[in-house]
Structures are given as C-alpha cells and as structure tokens.
Amino acid sequence: MSNIGGVIKSIRDIFRKDPGLSGDAQRIEQLGWMIFLKLFDDKDKEKEILNPKYKSPIPTELQWRNWAENDEGITGDELITFVNNKLFTQLKNLTIGLDDKLGVIIRNIFDGTNNYMKSGTTFRQAINKLNEIDFNSSKEHHIFNAIYEDILQGLATKKDTGEFYTPRAVTQFIVDMVNPKLGEKISDPACGTAGFLVCAIEHLRKQVKNISDRKTLQETITGTELKPLPFMLSVVNLITHDIEVPQIVNTDALSREYTSIKQADRVDIIVANPPFGGVVGDGMETNFPLNYRTKESADLFLILFIQMLKDGGRAGIVLPDGSLTGDGVKQRVRQKLLEDCNVHTIVRLPQSVFAPYATVNTNLIFFEKGKPTKEIWYYEHTLPEGAKAYNKTKPIRIEEFDTIKNWWENRAESEVCWKVSIDTIIDRNYDLDIKNPNKKVEEVVYDKKKIISDLKLSFSKCQNLLEELNA
C-alpha cells in the first residue's frame, strides 16, 4: 500500500514546489490528466499484445511512452513547450472517426483541462515519480483504487467542489439495496467522479462468469457529468476498474429535451446523488414540461429520472429534505413521482452524513417505476452509540446499515421505522417530510425549588457585578 500511496504523496509534494500550481483542486486536475495519459498508455500496451492490429486513438508522438516514460527524456522549457503547444493543442483537436468513443472522451478531457505547471524540471520530477506505477499489475491496480478514492475524498472537503463526492458507505448501501443484475442497463445522470457506477461494477463483477458476461458489463454502465474535473476523474475511475471504453458523456443531463427520451433510451436502474441546492443552467428548465419547470436542480433531476426509467425500472437516489416538502412545482413533482412510481422506502439520514461540505438533512429514496405508491416505509438511520455527528475522520460506515438490510426483507414497525399510507400523504398535499411518530422522547422532570435557587444565585451575582462596575 505504502508504495503507491508514497508515490502519489511524493508527486503532490513535488507539485508544491511549482509556482504554477495553487490549491488542491489544481493539483488534482494536474495529477488527474497525467494519471489518465499514463494509465491509457499502459492499457494500450496491453491491447497491443492481445491484438497486433490495435491502434491507439492517441497519436504516436503524444503517447506517454514517447515523451514521458524515459526518465532522461525532455525536461525544462522544452518539456513545458511540448506539453502546452503540442500535447494539449493536438489532443483538444483530435481527429476522430464516427464511432470512436474513446477519441471523443480524450478530446473532451483535454478540452476541459489545463497544464498548470510552469517549471519543466519539477514537472520532469513528477513524471518520473509517476513512472514508478504500473497500472497493468493487478496488485498495484487494486491499491491504486484505494489511493484514488482517498484523492477524491481530499477533493470533496473543498467547499466549491464538494458536490461530487458521496460517502462510500452511502453509494454501497444504495447499490446493495437496488441490487443490479448483469445485463440491466445502469445509469447515473449526475455521476460526479463515478462513485455509484464503480460500486455497481463491483457488485456486478461477482456475476461475471465468462468473456461474454464481461462484454455485457462493459456495455451496460453509463453516466453523464458536466464539470470538466469530475468528468476526467470519472473516466480515470472507470478505466482503473477495467471498463475499456467508459460510457460517460461530458454534458449536462438536463440539457436533453424531456420528450426526446424514448423507450430505446430508457434504463433499468438509476443510482444517483443529483446536485441539490444548485440553480440549473440558463434555460435548462425549458427542456421540461411547463408543469415541472423550476430552477432547483434536484427537482428537475427527479423528473428526468422518472422519464429515463423503463417500466419496472428501479432507482436509489439521494434527495435533500427540501425536495420532500414545499408547494407549487415541488408538490407537482412529488405527486408525479408517487403516481408514476412505487416509492417503497425512504431512509432518513442524520444531518452530518455529508459533512463538512453539506449540512442539509438528506434522504435515500428507493422507488420502482410503473406502479403507483400505496404506502411508504420510513426508516430513521441514527448515529452510532455515543457519536454526536459524522465528520471527516469518522464518516458513516457500511456496517451501520446492517440493521436496515436485515429489516429490508421482513419489515415491521419499531422505534426507528414507520409506515405511512398514500391517503395520509395526499391529505398532507404530498408532503413527504414525515417525522418519526414512534420516537421515544425522554421526559425532563423539573425541580422547581432548584430552579428558583439557581435563579436567585444568578441574580445576586449580577447584582454584585453591577455594584462593582458602578463603584
């Protein structure tokens, strides 16, 4: 573990010496595209061995092996000039064939990415460090995934970029409960760095028995991500999880005309944490029916998810309390959800699950499209014994969901779970923000005499203080 971890740490230390890089987000972007090119070249070498006719979409001169792999290779100003004027310029404008999905991904990545390094010598040091990792060695590959997750979490604590990291335990639990089967089309239309998709891949990998299964897995995982940095990181994440051609589209999922989503585009499963609290891009809401137009991103994504699911399709998503309540469009969105889908379970999470970069209360919503909701089960997930809140050093853990998993197949009401009928919800104007009715409230017994004596003492202290000040 320490080897790859050590290499990444060394690179980040080298980055700190370069005047061009400021802040973690830039360092991660820099590390991201360097890792992408090295990883891509390592995979290319593997493909060339398996298929002598294989030709990389990256031009020969720009392949990692031809400018970066040799530790004694170009350095200083020559290196910076090559990267800025040749590497980036040509990869941004890559000529690509009609069905060259990888070429499109490469072009998109370099179109939205920068080389921030100014010193060719520190750049060469960083490259030489990265050359110590062999992405084709499966042992290293597994360890790299752990380190990579760590890099992503480091990024997640930054306020401005925080919207794209969902705690691993949450993605894992959602995928476990939605339980995708090999062959089902799976999508995350707001995929961030692909945390949900990676969990789905790991879940499905246990079902892969042969080459044809492996091909099926490759073809059924899809996602969309608008922002350049998470888009690049999601591609790297999927490639390190053996997805040869990541089907991640670099666009805003809300930019698609709602009515253009036809049966052929629909998917079996959606797992997602749509951006919330955000305002959608200019005019995006006009892609949606008049009844559901809003600037609140989470609500539009919810409408999109319903439209994207096949009948019988399943979803597990994260939604803030704000989407469970409210009038007008918000109410109409919830009504559509409950009429078109069976919302069978809502898991209410403690406030600090997404700390430190979001302090809103969130919920995990599980639904199936094609049948209306008759009743909803609520489950209130509570903090571990003795804990006041989750934080960076003590995040939520997958084991904490074991009790919900045991309850899932065999449900009964208790202090932490309760059932609400659709009639009750309609009476509440489709408000889903329903507090736990079974919670035991500890009674506080007041001791009148003690309160009076405490107050007297407090008053006399105040009196003394006032007299001192006057004197």
Describe the model.
- The longest helix has 27 residues, at 24-50.
- This protein has 471 residues and is of the alpha/beta class.
- The model has no long low-confidence stretch (mean pLDDT 89).
- The termini are far apart.
- Helices cover 44% and strands 12% of the residues.
- Helix 11 links the parallel strand 2 (221-224) and strand 3 (247-249).
- It folds into two domains: 2-135, Up-down Bundle (Ferritin), CATH 1.20.1260.30; 157-427, Vaccinia Virus protein VP39 (Rossmann fold, 3-Layer(aba) Sandwich).
- It has helices at residues 2-16, 24-50, 64-67, 76-92, 101-111, 120-130, 138-156, 168-178, 195-205, 211-219, 228-240, 297-308, 329-340, 402-408, 422-427, 448-470, and strands spanning 186-188, 221-224, 247-249, 267-272, 309-320, 341-348, 362-369, 375-380, 417-421.
- It has a nine-stranded mixed beta sheet with strand order 3-2-1-4-5-7-6-8-9.
- Helix 1 (2-16) packs antiparallel against helix 6 (120-130) and helix 4 packs across helix 5 (101-111).
- The protein is globular.
- It contains 16 helices and nine strands.
